[in-house]
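Hello again, I could really use a second opinion on something today. I've dropped the whole record in just underneath, so have a look.
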Amino acid sequence: MQAMESGARGPDRAVALQREQVLRQLSEACLDGRITPGDLASRAAAAQAARTTAELRCLTWDLPASGAVTDRSHPDSPL
């Protein structure tokens, strides 16, 4: 039996390994201070419930890059 592909036959199904990778990305983002512990909990729950790869991508697309430096020269930037 062939795996489902995106397109006319339906969305890509998420597999356990993909969920684990997203959970690792989210945990690292929280440890780095890029997301809050509350955000981590919400996104982790959504990752566990995700049925498609698109649902998983939605959980990490907005994460700042690891080691990203915030521009603090702008007067409205937090210290």
Q: What stands out?
A: Residues 22 and 58 are 10 Å apart (CA to CA). Confidence is low (pLDDT under 50) at residues 1-8, 69-79. The two ends are 56 Å apart (CA to CA). The helical segments are 16-31, 37-49, 53-57.
